[in-house]
Amino acid sequence: MGENSLTITDNRTGKTYELPINEGAVRAMDFRQIKVSDDDFGMMVYDPAFTNTASCRSEITNIDGEKGILRYRGYPIEQLASQSTFLETAYLLINGELPTRAQFVEWEHEITIHTFLHENTKKSMDGFLYDSHPMGMLVSTVAALSTHYPDSKNIFDDEVRQLQIKRLIAKMPTLAAFAYRHSLGQPYVYPDNDLSFTGNLLNMLYKMSEVKYLPDPVLERALDILFILHADHEQNCSTNAMRSVGSSQVDPYSAIAAACAALYGPLHGGANEAVLRMLKEIGSVKGIAKFIKRVKDGEDLLMGFGHRVYKNFDPRASIIKELAHQVFEVTGRNPLLDIALELERIALEDDYFIDRKLYPNVDFYSGIIYQSMGFPVSMFPVLFAIPRTAGWIAQWQEMLLDSEQKIARPRQLYVGQDERDYLSWDRRDNKAAAKEAVA
Ligand code: CMC
To answer: Which domains are assigned to the chain?
Structure first.
C-alpha cells in the first residue's frame, strides 16, 4: 500500500493489517476487519467526547491551535473582523465565497424582509413566566417556528432550504430581542428594516419612547465584529449537536433548537459570565495576587484562560481586547477592565500559565464588553446564538449535501450485566431485604 498507510499487528492473532491514511487520518471502519474469529464483530475505536475523532470532512472553518489561526473559508479572522460585516461573513460561511455586490444586495434584502415574526409567536412568548431565562425562551420559540413553516421539512429541496436559511438568520435577532424585552416586562419592539443587522438588534433591545431609534455607530460596529468572531468555530459542542440532530433529517428549526440547547450549557456558552463573576470576586487589582495563588494551588481556575484547541493564543481574544477600548470610549470604562488587564499581564509572565500554554481566550474580554453595552449576563448565550446560527446552518447544509454522511449513530462498549432471568416482585423484595440485612 506504500508510504501513506498504517501497519497494525494484532498480537492476539499475530495477523498484520495495512490501513490507508488519507488527510492524516485512518477510517475507523477499516478497524472492523481486525477480528479474532469469524463471528467476532470486529475492532472498534473508543473515544468518549470525540477528542480525537474527525466526524466529517469540512471546507468551512480551519483552526490551527498551535499557530493561533482561525479562518472562515480560507479568509483569516483578523481580515474579516476589520473589513467584513456579519451579514457578508454569514453569506461566506454558508455559500463558500464572498458575495459580489449584486449578490450581497439581494442577500441583505432577503434577510431584511424576513425579520418579522408571526404574531402568534409573540403571543406564545407572553406565556412564559415574567422572569424566564431568555435563552430558555429562545430554545423553545425557535423550535416552535417549525410549526409555522411545515414546508421546512423538505430539506433536500434547495429553494425551500434557502428560504429557511434566510428566515433563520433574520428571525433569530427578533426572537432574542423579544425574549429580552419579555424578561424585563417591556413591550416588544418590532424590527426596523432601515437599520443594519446589528443596528436593528440594538433597536429591538433598547428602543423606548423615541420615534426612531438611532444606534450608536461604534456600538453597532462593535457588535457586528463580535458577531463575526462568534459566527463559526468548526466542530464544537453545539455544532456537533446541529449536525447530529440534523442528520435525522429533521427540519432546521428543530435542529437549531438542539444547537441552542447545547450552547446554553455553562461549559460552552457560559464562560464569559464566569469571567465576570471571577473579576467581581477578585474585587480590585490588589486582590489579584491572592487569586493567582489560589489558581496555582489548584483551588480555582483562571476563567477566560486556556483552550482545548488554541495552545498559543486565541486570535479572537486579541481582536476583542482592542475592541473593548473602542467600546469603553462610548460607554465609559468598565472598572472590571483594570482588573482584567492586570490579571492578564501577571498571568502571562507567570511560569504556571506559560508552562501549560494558557492564554486569554475569546471569553476573557467579551463579557466585559457585553456588560458595558448594557446586557445582563442572561443575554450572553443569546448574543452568542445569533451569529453562531450562520455557522450552524453552514455546517448543517454541508452535512446534508455530503454523500458520505448518514444518520449519526455512535457505537458503545457495553459493560453492563450479561443475560439474566426476569425476577418476580417477591424475589426482588427478598433479595433487597437480604442485602439490607447484610448491610
Ligand atoms: N486556569 C488554571 N489552570 C488551568 C486553566 C485555567 N483556566 N485551564 C487549564 N488549566 C491547567 C489544568 O489544570 C491542567 O494543569 P495540570 O497539567 O497541572 O493538571 C493544564 O492547565 C491543562 O489543562 P486541561 O484541563 O487539560 O486543558 P483542556 O484543554 O482540557 O481545557 C479548557 C480547556 C478551556 C476547558 C480549560 O482551559 C478551562 O477550563 N478554562 C477556563 C474556562 C474557559 O475560559 N472556557 C472558555 C473556553 S473558550 C470557548 C470557545 O472557544 O468557544
So the answer is: 70-268+379-400 (1.10.580.10), 271-372 (1.10.230.10)
